[in-house]
Amino acid sequence: MKEIEALWRDVRELSLGNSVRIEKLESPPTPLQFLRDFISPNKPCIVSNAINHWPALSSWTHDDYLTQAISSTHVSVHLTPNGRADAIVPFNNNQAESPPLQCFASAHVELMPFAEALSLITSSSSESSSNLKVVAYAQQQNDCFRSEYSELGSDCDPHIPWASEALGCLPEAVNLWIGNHHSQTSFHKDHYENLYAVISGEKHFLLLPPTDVHRLYIRNFPAAYYSYSRETKEFTLELEKPTRYVPWCSVNPYPSPESKESEMSKFPLYFNGPEPFEFTVKAGEILYLPSMWFHHVRQSPDDRGRTIAVNYWYDMQFDIKYAYFNFLQSIHCRSNLKATLHDNQCEDSDSGF
Ligand SMILES: O=C(O)CCC(=O)C(=O)O
Fold it and tell me: Where in this chain does the record put each JmjC domain (predicted)?
């Protein structure tokens, strides 16, 4: 354990710096600067004044513009009772299990006309958490901006030129995210270099470097899915059959006041370790979120009740850094760290998480 703690310290001292502030650039870097100062050291940054020329920044604040532009296609909307899709939630199977079974819950995904999606997202924005019936988040992550939203394509650049040149490729996927403050994205990591542009509202990020993998207590959870009935306006949560396990981060960084103490004692490496990078990306800014970094995302809406972002996923290099991170993750179960963990479940390093 001491050795792994020393690694957290070294990474911060030698590469990331000891501040939890993220580096901010007032103008786009040259491809060479971006490669040298951020991609190679696998270090995040926020870039301002890189997308001021995108028509999206002004035209997407008008509902009429958006609904007329996408009048003929249906879009995928992720529905949950609480805004927590792809997250660890309790599974109530009517059996008094102690501790209660937890599962990895996926949203109910529905195709609907864009105007309906927009009004659903906006209407739940003004509800208090206790009155919520359904939270809608347009967050289909399969290159949806270039398929479902292709009519909006000319409002943004098709790629981020200085990033494409530095990375030596074009984006593998471009995604659109439209949500409100009830939706949050739980801690996870992606095998992509991510250029994340906020168009409207604000996104609040927590980031931890890949070397902090043990602090997130990755465990295997049974996969479950929400189903939503339009008639009853009720959700049901069912376990997938046959059972499928999903390796996912156990830590909820914002526990409720009632559960805070128990969460802190279950996950001491997270709550007592070095602070995560915590920052807000505002409309008009781009975040560079390097591959394999763990991220948790919340959002604050604009005055129309929504947050809109477009992100560009570029393939990462499966190079020596990737090999080191995999090795680090795999030594978890065999290390002394195991003794300090809450339970004996080990993360599944072959799972692709
Ligand atoms: O905006 C969000 O809710 C999540 C973004 C994210 O996880 C990503 O871009 O990889």
Answer: 136-329
346: number of CA atoms within 13 Å, CB side?
A: 15
**Contacts of 269 by beta carbon, 8 Å cutoff, 6+ apart:** 214, 215, 217, 337, 340
Q: Is the CB of 196 under 6 A from ligand 1?
A: yes
pLDDT in tens, 131-181: 788 999 999 999 999 999 999 999 999 999 999 999 999 999 999 999 999
Q: Full-prediction pTM beyond 0.85? A: yes
Q: What phi and psi values does residue 352 have, to the nearest 5 degrees?
A: 90, 5
291 lines ligand 1 (CB under 6 A): no
Q: What are the pLDDT digits (tens) for 253-290?
A: 999 999 999 999 999 999 999 999 999 999 999 999 99
Residues 12, 274 contacting (CB under 8 angstroms): yes
Cα separation of 313 and 85, whole Å? 20
Distance (Å) from CA 188 to ligand 1 centroid: 9
- Amino acid at the residue 251: V
Q: How many CB atoms lie under 10 A from the CB of residue 155?
A: 19
The answer to whether 79 and 183 are in contact (CB under 8 A) is no
pLDDT digits (tens, 9 = 90+) for 295-311: 999 999 999 999 999 99
Domains, in order of start, for the chain = 2-340 (2.60.120.10)
C-beta of 80 in contact with ligand 1 (< 6 A): no
Return the SS3 of 296. Answer: strand
